Amino acid sequence: MFRIVSGNPTLVWCPVDYSSGGDTLYVGQLVKSTGDGVAPLGQASGAYDTSAKANVFGVVVGTNNINPTFNTTYKADYITSVSSQAALAARSFFGPEGGWGKAEPMAMVQVALIDPSTIIQGSLFGTTYGVAPTIVDETTGDATGLTVTYTAGTADATTVADNATLYGVTGANAGVYRICTSANNSASTCAIAFPQDIAIGDTFKIIGVRPCGLTKIQTDSESTFIDVDQALTTNYWGVTVVGIDLSVAGKETINFRFNTAHFNARG
After folding, report:
1. Could you tell me which of 78, 118, 156, 201 has the fewest CB atoms within 10 Å of its CB?
2. Which of 219, 236, 224 is nearest to 45 (CA)?
3. Which residues of 14-25 are buried (b: 16+ CB within 10 A; e: fewer)?
4. CA 61, CA 94: separation in Å to the nearest integer?
């Protein structure tokens, strides 16, 4: 999921969009303003999302359900939009803040607004929520410390040159990060050597984001995590990474901010 780690965001209450037949939103999800309220930001379409031209709005931080509903897949509370008078009358809710009436029965979420300076922490998973990035085994060894070689296709995705991170999991370079300069899925190289020789049997993570600076990312279709199993050659968001933590399997994260293009009125 996503959470804001820097800044003091404005909190607003918004209806859950129903224009496409209803939607479910989760606490920790990235959303856009659209239709009848807010909906999942979704995946980027085109380079820097130039096809869909979605505008980043915020992160869901709460719902107006009196009785919380918990989703075991996303490990988060959720709320589902309703439309009919009967469905509205059947809801157990509390009144939101702001201009909405306290007796407003709509399904609503509280959203922490995002702007270009907001720093967000996002989880890194492979294709499916909760699936940790793949660990690969060194098959050749390299006394120069410049190349990690592994069985073709075993990393999460073919990396984009200068848009990936090599991280030592076991061996003499455990805990060391390097920017990956290559674009393949069998041997990953870096321009600055690992400080120790790379030995056969050492293990590494090869993650398709930079540890710092401008990088491309892709979210899942529900915009609940950063999907490291994406090629990032056609569809991606543009972000600036300010921190990375790959130390714990299943809890890999980056801290980042969205680039300003994703806040312009592009539709």
Report:
1. 201
2. 236
3. bbbbbeeeebbb
4. 15
Alpha-carbon separation of residue 155 from 144, 179, 188, 192, 229 (angstroms)? 22, 16, 10, 21, 9
Dihedral sign from CA coordinates of 132, 133, 138, 139: positive
Q: What is the pTM of this model?
A: 0.92
Instruction: Give whole-number Cα distances, 45 to 29, 41, 54, 217, 237, in Å.
Output: 18, 11, 9, 12, 8
CA dist., res. 47 & res. 33, Å (int): 21
Determine phi and psi for 20, rounding to 5 degrees: -105, 25
**Do residues 150 and 187 make contact, with C-beta atoms less than 8 angstroms apart?**
yes
Contact status, residue 192 vs residue 144, Cβ threshold 8 Å: no
Sheet harboring 24-26: ordered strands across?
24-26, 76-80, 70-71
Contact 137, 149 (CB under 8 A): no
Give the side-chain half-sphere CA count within 13 A for 35.
Answer: 17
Distance between CA atoms of residues 165 and 195, nearest Å: 16
The mean pLDDT values, 10 residues at a time, for the chain of 267 residues are: 90 90 93 93 95 94 94 95 91 84 91 95 96 96 96 89 96 97 90 98 96 96 96 95 97 96 75
Measured CA to CA, the distance from residue 30 to residue 40 in angstroms comes to 6
